[in-house]
Specification:
By secondary structure, the protein is an alpha/beta fold. The chain is built from eight helices and nine strands. The radius of gyration is 23 Å and the shape is elongated. The protein binds ligand 9D3. Ligand 9D3 binds next to strand 5 and helix 5.
Length: 250
């Protein structure tokens, strides 16, 4: 039974940035299937002065520009209507986006995303308009737009029907809590590098065990902190401890 599409409103002074990323692959298909209705809004259209200014110099001095509050409030108020929806400011000071946060966001019927530029937005947007503030990680990007695209992509993948039957979001790395192991396809031999024999053995149970162990080893090597929270069996924890103290390495 098809349910009503999640609606996502995005507010930006560069709405054209969203066109091609949202017109390919899984997001395109989700939009075509009406699983999601994405609307971008140009904040500049809501500026009322004759130059349609969306930014101004900071009170107190210093370099850079700050996004003015009036056009942002006007844009959100014009679009919002009566519906309840989180108003998420993408900002370097927000809580960091994780798969758990994505899962929570995916349960809302509507999201409103505010993308800042310059040094950021006037503090009154943060205090009196936004209901949530999210960062995509501890590095500096030039504005909230790419962060909003990351958030939208991650959320859409979780909407029922967004992924083909060939792939389940529940199997995604991070959804399972550990990293994925290696994948191989043809050719069997490539520049002298071969595919592990086990994957051609036809022993499905042994293949599954090998894959699970490869995933655990990779997580131990690269992201050991993930293992603390991951759902592992007692046998797997014992095996990993032996693997971790094994002087032969990997
Ligand atoms: C943290 C750097 N700021 C003080 C010098 C200036 C600044 C740089 C870039 C302020 C805002 C921005 C634009 N970045 C975002 O709007 C942003 C962001 C990010 O930079 N990193 C991770 N997640 C996000 S979400 C929005």
């Amino acid at each position: 039974m098809p349910t009503t599409a999640m609606r996502i409103d995005i507010f930006s002074i560069f709405p054209e940035m969203f066109e091609s990323p949202f017109d390919v692959s899984i997001i395109k298909r989700a939009r075509e299937r009406e699983l999601v209705n994405i609307q971008t809004h140009n904040i500049r259209d809501y500026a009322t002065d004759k130059h349609q200014m969306t930014d101004d110099t900071p009170y107190g001095g210093g370099g850079g520009m700050v996004m003015k509050p009036e056009p942002i409030f006007a844009a959100v108020e014009a679009v919002k209507g009566e519906d309840e929806a989180p108003i998420i400011l993408l900002s370097p000071q927000g809580r960091v986006l994780t798969q758990t946060v994505v899962e929570e966001l995916s349960t809302h019927p509507r999201l409103m995303l505010l993308c800042g530029r310059y040094e950021g937005v006037d503090e009154r947007v943060r205090q009196h308009l936004a209901t949530d503030e999210i960062s995509i990680g501890d590095y500096v990007i030039s504005g909230g737009e790419l962060a909003a695209m990351v958030l939208v992509d991650a959320v859409i993948r979780l909407l029922p029907g967004a992924l083909g039957y060939e792939h389940s979001a529940a199997e995604d790395s991070f959804a399972t809590g550990i990293l994925e192991g290696p994948h191989y396809t043809r050719p069997l031999q490539f520049r002298g590098w071969s595919v592990p024999d086990i994957l051609r053995s036809g022993h499905h149970a042994k293949v599954a065990e090998w894959r699970r162990k490869q995933a655990l080893l990779r997580t131990l090597e690269r992201r050991p902190e993930l293992l603390e929270e991951a759902e592992l069996t007692t046998e797997e924890r014992v095996w990993l401890r032996e693997a971790g103290t094994d002087s032969s390495g990997s």
